[in-house]
Amino acid sequence: MIYKGDLVHCPQLGRMEILHDHIIAVNDIGFITHVAPADTPESVQLLRGSQYQSIPKGSFLFPAFYDLHLHAPQFLYQGSGLHLPLMEWLNEYAFKAEEKIDADPVLARTVYRRLAYRLLEQGTGGVVLFGTIKEETNLILAEVMQDSGIRAYVGKLSMDISSRKTYVEPSAMASLEAAFSFVERCNALTIHLPVHDRLIEPILTPRFVPTCSDELLTGLGHFSNERNVRIQSHMAESFDQVTWVKEERGIDDMDVFDKHGLLTPRTIQAHCTFLDPPSLAHVAEHGTSIAHCPLSNAYFSALPFRLREALDNGVKVGLGTDIAGGYSIDIMVAMRQAVAVSRMREGSRVMAHTEGRQVEDKQRNLSIEWKEALYLATGGGAAAMGLHPGAGTFQVGAPFDAQQIRLSHGGLRSSVGPLDLFDLGEGEDKNGEGSETWKLNLEHVEKWWCLGDVRNRITVWVQGRERWPF
């Protein structure tokens, strides 16, 4: 398929490109084969005699989002129960919901199909999912994501310790056997498909250190290393969790994961709000990625994540919604929260320095800007997930995971959804007419970033196939 119009992407942290009137060609297996201005000889030749889809003025193509941390069964009670500390919240809400989903496969399929609908509606083309402890329920989750056309790492929870007696695996050995079995059965779901159509992948998922014995963690580490299987968990998330691990294990949970071979380039760790700069440098040395979930951190962590320090230390960072610890499944909310939290951290640093209080780094600006957040939601998230090179950007050889965004119908008087475009753009007359000369600019994209919602999203593609409207 060939698309002609404006493209916007973030090829690297802090850099955004607006590519006016470009051609992007996608082959039959969903990879980009051509990106260039429409008036180049190659583009002209490509268009000659070919059908193509025109992206109208006032619209642009942007890469799909990647959500690095979401608890699929907790979608059942999204937007409720956020008044408790983490460890109490798990007992009162999370474990109960997950147990309920495990007991009812019809409910599981219903919830997961709705989850897939919402993800695509919000422009999310790839997601890293925590599931439940029951194999069959997680296979339902994997089937639904594959059928819906969403890239998904699906994790069957491993937990042989639990504060809820009815929601726990009977032993470390039983947990390991179930994890190994799930990996095999999940891979078997797509083995008959061409490689480019295999959108789901199993991921080993020790819930977090408080729910996993040393024996279980050791076994998962060995299996991941032998079979090259990805890993996800929570690390250094909240004060009560960090304190519990230190008292029970005598070391920090980062050291627990490291000790058992679970801090690897295949690993995604969520939150990490209690990691100081030296610890973040240690994470970077291991090639481990971090899922930054600013909204849920505001509810469940006593500290904000040191995002700027993580990026400066070379840590691969993407964004996560952390449903249901975060109440919004929209990665755009995560982006906005990430910027807001970083600006508050910078304000605190400035005030501490002004008042003569000790700060970790007197010179480093701790805030990030909106263009950096866009990178984290796209190319940064894809890199953290270890996806195909170039994923999250528009470059030759990358998978075409994209969304079409509409800001207006070509004139300022016809803005879409929550956007109001009052400034006169290039070529506009005072009545907001002149659709043929409407030109997308940086301010238009920023306004979408700040205010846009589902009304601005027209289409979503994953691996070159149209997945939304659902």
Automatic annotation (TrEMBL):
Residues annotated as domain Amidohydrolase-related: 60-405
Cofactor section: Zn(2+)
Xref: Gene3D superfamilies: Metal-dependent hydrolases, Urease, subunit C, domain 1
Family matches, as Pfam families: Amidohydro_1 (PF01979)
Record keyword Metal-binding present: yes
Keywords, ordered alphabetically: Hydrolase, Metal-binding, Zinc
Highest rank taxon of the organism: Eukaryota
PANTHER family listed in its UniProt record: GUANINE DEAMINASE (PTHR11271)
Official protein name in the record: Amidohydrolase-related domain-containing protein
Origin species: Somion occarium
